[in-house]
Amino acid sequence: xxxxxxxxxxxxxWSLSAAAPAEAHQLIPGVGGFPAMMLHPVAATDHLLAIxxxxxxxxxxxxxxxxxxxxxxxxxxxxxxxxxIGISPDFAELVPLALAAICGALGxxxxxxxxxxxIALATxxxxxxxxxxxxxxxGTPALILTGIGCAFGAALLFTxxxxxxxSADRDWQRIALRVAASWITACAxxxxxxxxxxxxx
Amino acid sequence: xxxLARLALLSVMTVLLATxxxxxxxxxxxxxFVSGFAHPLLGPDHLIAMVAVGMWGAFLGPPAIWLLPVVFxxxxxxxxxxxxxxxxxxxxxxxxxxxxxxxxxxxxxxxxPPLWIAAVLVGLFAIFHGFAHGAELPKAADPVHYALGFVxxxxxxxxxxxxxxxxxxxxxxxxVVRASGAAISLAGMFFLVNSAx
Lengths: 201, 197
What we know:
The structure holds two protein chains of two kinds.
Chain A: H1 6-19, H2 33-43, H3 45-61, H4 66-84, H5 95-108, H6 115-132, H7 140-166, H8 171-200
Helix pairs in contact in A: 2-3, 2-7, 3-5, 3-6, 3-7, 3-8, 4-6, 4-7, 5-6, 5-8
Chain B: H1 3-22, H2 32-42, H3 44-60, H4 64-85, H5 92-108, H6 115-136, H7 143-165, H8 171-196
């Protein structure tokens, strides 16, 4: 898969950056429906970390990252719709962070993964993010539209970081990606531990 | 670097920096990305030890230059986990001060031990730094952003140390880097004395 053109990347990066200050796991004030859900994977930092880790891993591993991209997109949509009708475990909020930790660790260790494993990770990540995202309008038409928005946002974010990882062709760039992946793992493991210790107490 | 990669890198930095600016603020000092980011920067003992890790990595050259900054956050996480779950780790402040003394001395002496020894040493000290950060994490109103902040700041301090350490490629720069290592070691002794008193 060729990296998307700059004309596409620039507005995406701009919109993602502009959206970032919004509160995690809350819809952005003044923005609802499709745009809000499209920005949700960025606004929720745990979801952002999971997608970034998966994107960096896929970009370094797959010569074509279309299959994991497709798996992620469909899984986010499926997970979102499943979550909306109540098929979502209680610990769904923590699963994206757990997957961020796993993908980050695999990226930090520069593991070579088969396409099947990448697709499996993308599917799990998508399901986790989708089911942990709560729709603001449970009506069927709005639900489908916002679900598509959430999947679209996740797909754009994944594409951006997979393209970044794939274009890293110098040693220091590959090192920087590994360092970034190790940061994601560190952050995710710490927060997971904190949540686990709170639940334990 | 391809322009696409530059744009994406810029967006990564912007996303990370922008996320914490308004996220879950207004609930005290220990919240959000900025608080986490400031934690290693406002602790001079943390700060000089992080810079020393980068400097030593640059001094040792590849693969240590990238291995040490990857090893550090992973072991720091282990220390952070101990801090969060409340496992007692005696002498945390002493360990942090000692890390500055030892790592600064490694740079000052231009020590080039086998890579695994360097990694073990850095990993060991990372546990103390991680413990100190991790102990603060339960107080944070927004743990995700707080953790992201201090991990990012730690990594950037390594990067600063690497950048400075690369001056060692030149003869006068090598002297400056080694002198800075000695200064870090001395500062570590000061912190050690302070922590003991």
